[in-house]
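In response to reviewer comment 3 from the previous cycle, which asked for concrete evidence that the modeling workflow produces usable outputs, we include below a single protein chain processed end to end. The sequence was submitted unchanged, and the resulting structure tokens are shown without manual editing.
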Amino acid sequence: MVNDYKKIVLLSGLKGISDHNFKIVKSLLSKELKLNRKAQYGYDRSKIADLMEDKFPKDAGIDTLIELYKEIPDLEDLADELKREKAKAKRKQTEKSISEAKRHRRDEPSTSQPIPTIHEDSKPGSGRSTRNSQAPRLAPATSSKRDQATQVSPETTSRGVQTFQVPLTSASSSTQAPGVFLAKKPRLKTVPEQPSEGNGQHPDPKKVMVLKATEPFTYDLRRGKRMFHATVATETEFFRVKVFDIVLKKKFIPNKVITISNYFGRNGFINIYSATSVSEVNGNQSMNIPTTLRQRANATPKINYLYSKRRGIFVNGVFMVNKKNETKDCICYEIQDNTGMMEVMVYGRLTSVNCNPGNKVRLMCFELTDEGKVYLKSMRHSNMKVIKAEK
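The workflow returned the following structure tokens.
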């Protein structure tokens, strides 16, 4: 069993994470595994798995990883996966134990429940040895287990000894009960952390529910072009939407079901350019959007989570402004949360937003960039808005 757990720890728990997250895991487990600085830097995933097996002989450290991954936003889904893998290994071991117990009962003669009445030559009170009385159990080799448990010859019935069949029926029931337990509880679907991208042209209609939409804003001051951002979802995934025809704002109402078609996916966004691409669904139709999916779609990512993500993704969220530094070409803000700090570079029209240290600011469509350091950068379709402190 421990070997099965170690396999899960190594192949799913450690091999399945990024190098950055692996460094985090080694740092957080350094005291328990007695890792010095050199070991934290040099030990690979196999070596860490070996140390965890020694430190946690009961489960090779799989429960420790599960609890740890729950606290790392980027690894929450993997924590759920490890739980499922552990339960699967446990079920496999239980089934193996049941199978071995059945085989043992078949192969070993019983000393507690002699069954002398099934054989046609047996007679009550004849004093036959236990060894001879076992022969009838091997005779009905072609019968099913259910038949063996319930089949009684007329001769046995006439002799008044049905009672010797009760232990067989009880044994059959006891071995079947765990099987009923093992068949229960289907696996839960994984809730996505990131919006679905769906790159390219999509002519076919897609029914979605509107989760939220911003107010329209001018993104091109010279040409007076306007747009708004929205978040929509199906029952299994969510999407970020850029809408460039503000007439559609009246259709993007939270919890309203709409159909979108002829849209274009790019850089993690659905881009809608024409009002004809959105239609209302007849009647008061609804969709069952899981609560966890709604939370993921509306959540502000943690700063340490952003450091672990690939560069080029776009970020939405509400952050506390810690510092502000104005230059000729841009404004540099420092945002923070309880996991760390990150710089935000704001250019062009957004430099006119009156945002100061101590404010909370909502960032929309800021690109995660790495040019010598990791930071967020405003782009053509970005927007920011100072908001009141949220309770």
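DSSP finds 14 helices and 15 strands in the chain. We consider this sufficient to address the reviewer's concern, and the full set will be provided in the supplementary archive.
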